[in-house]
Structure formats: C-alpha cells, structure tokens
Amino acid sequence: PDLDHEQIEKLLKIDAFVRKLVQEYQGTGELPDWAKFVRPEIKQFFRIFQLCTKPDAKTITIRLDHETAEAALAAPRGPANYIAEIIKRTLAKLGITTDQAFNIEFNHTGRTENHPAHIHGALCIPGDRVNDVTEALREALAAGYRQRYNNLAVDIEAPRSARSWAIYCIKEYDITASKLTGERLKKTSPVYSTQKLTQQAQELYESIRAWINS
C-alpha cells in the first residue's frame, strides 16, 4: 500500500523478468552454448554462485554514498569497473587479494537522503578480517551514507545459500541495465566480475551442460 504506481511497475517488471528466465530454461532438456546463447545475467549467476562456494566466501552489500555513486555513474569505463577498482585498492591496502563479482542496483523507495545506487555481490576474505574490511569499504565507498533501520552501509556475511544469493544479485539486471544505458547514452553493463572467475564459472557451467547432455 505504500508503493506508488512507478514503484509497482518496477516490481512487476522484476517479476516478469524472473518468470521469463524460468520459462526459457525449464524443460528444454539441454543447456545452451555459453559463448553464443547464455544471457549475461545467467553468466553472472554462475560467477556469483561459483564464488560463494569458495573457502572464506562472503556475500556483500554496499550502499554507496552520493559522492561515490555520482562519480561511478560518470566514470568513462562504467560504474561497475569504477567501484571494482576502489574495492580492489582498498583490500590491497589490507593485504587481501580476492576475486569479486557484483551487480549494481537502484532502490525504489523514492527517498533522496541516500543515493539509490547500491551493489550486491560476493568476494573472499578471512572471517577474522570482516570487521577491518567492513570499515575500510565503508570509508572508501559509503562514508556519507546515513543508516536507516537495518540497512547497513556495508554488510558482509557468510553465504547462507550460494544459489539463492546468486539469484538475488541478478534479479534486477534488465531494469538496471536499461537505466544505466539511458542515463549514459551508451550500452552499460550493471555487473562486474574478474576474468579468472568468469573462466571458472564457464568451466562449472560446461561441466553441468556435459552431464545433462550425456
């Protein structure tokens, strides 16, 4: 009852997107070729899923502050690459190297106190470094974010379900891609993943494909 017409339309688009994916992949009896026919959001699903199954895997949500979000949206190489570089540099200062994968989203509350841009994804960090990483990423990406309710600026947890989290991360792919492309006036991807992780995700996908097709 608290949602306006525009917010309801966005939720309906998300629902239609998920239903379309299910219909496309349900009951075909085989999986399509990764390089030619797998949609980008499904590739991202496998990347995040793969990452969430690794030792020290953590799910991560970062709610960007206005300054960071606006700089990311204006970055020549795209907002996902801009954010990923900041994460990489921040972790390097802590002596941590990890693959990372995430999706950019925009909340639909209509509030302007905090910027609507945020990310959902995964990376690998030791359990005893979570507090250090949380604080460092908050300073790097969300220093100006004002917490409301339980919406932390940076939320890092152990994965409860790799599959469920990967699905959650890609749920607004089409909406976000359309928004970014419209604002930047050129095709812009809402996702980021390291090349190594993409290779590992493809290997996982191909092993499943071979098993189904055997």
| Count of distinct strands | 5
Unreliable runs? none
For the termini, the CA-CA separation is: 50 Å
Q: What is the alpha-carbon Rg in Å?
A: 17 Å
How big a fraction of the residues is strand? 5-15%
Succession of helices and strands: HHHEHHEEHEHHEH
Which structural class is indicated by helix and strand composition?
alpha+beta
- SS summary, helix count: 9
Main features:
53% helix, alpha+beta, five-stranded antiparallel beta sheet, 5 strands, 14% strand, 214 residues
Briefly say what this structure is.
This protein has nine helices and five strands; from the N terminus they run αααβααββαβααβα. It is an alpha+beta fold and 214 residues long. Helix 3 (40-52) crosses helix 9 and helix 4 packs across helix 5 (79-93).
Secondary structure elements and pairings:
Elements (H helix, E strand, L loop, with lengths): L4 H21 L8 H4 L2 H13 L4 E7 L2 H9 L4 H15 L6 E7 L10 E8 L5 H12 L12 E4 L4 H9 L2 H12 L6 E3 L1 H19 L1
Antiparallel strand pairs: 1-3, 1-4, 2-3, 2-5
Helix pairs in contact: 3-7, 3-9, 4-5, 5-6
